[in-house]
Amino acid sequence: MKFEKLSDNKIRIILTMQDLTEKNIDFHSFMSNSIESQNVLLDMLEEAKKETGFDPENFNLKIEALAMADTNFIFTITKVYPETAIATSKSEPAEKTSRRKFTIKKKSLTPSSTTQAVYMFNCFDDFCNFLYFLKRSNSVSEIHSLADDVLLYSYKNYYYLLISNIHTSIVSRISFYATITEFAKCISNSKSFASKLKECGTLIMKNNALEIGFKHFV
Prior knowledge:
- This protein folds into two domains: about 1-105, no CATH class; about 115-215, Alpha-Beta Plaits (2-Layer Sandwich).
- It has seven helices and ten strands.
- It has helices at about 15-20, 25-30, 35-50, 125-135, 175-180, 190-200, 210-215; strands at about 1-5, 10-15, 60-65, 75-80, 105, 115-120, 145-155, 160-165, 185, 200-205.
- A hairpin with a 2-residue loop joins strand 7 (about 145-155) and strand 8 (about 160-165).
- Residues about 85-100 have low confidence and may be disordered.
């Protein structure tokens, strides 16, 4: 089991098939939100608190699960305020974090197009946090061969990373998708939305926006 702190409000827990076997559960039963899976998740949160300092007390939690092709399982836990909570029991007060029930939502990973993808960042800081995490995890080298074009646009107060001519032979792109979806939302209709960005958006960084970001903002 591996814990990664993505930001002050978000962590990622990576489990292997062996981890799940040792806990005597499978991914499908975990996603069913059974009592057993709830207890396992609470135990993981306690361990995450010790490892990363992530303290969920007095916060509601959004929990997303992702099954990777390499048989790893990724759980992303985000602290949210009660009024925007998506995955928490509304019948119990926030102070009872240690015994709350959680709803685990399955997360989508792969873009609808194999050669193009668009990701929406809520703010520029989220884009910078994504770059910082890549650099901290030594994943920068994988970026250079990911795609021919990586552009950053601003459109309606959001920031969009448009990735075109993706090299589908690059195995590390799956890891890239898993990481970027921790910081941004994948736009499903990427082709039509890319046209809208080019027509109505403001181009912030051209050529390779990721490399420019690494150079100037990380």
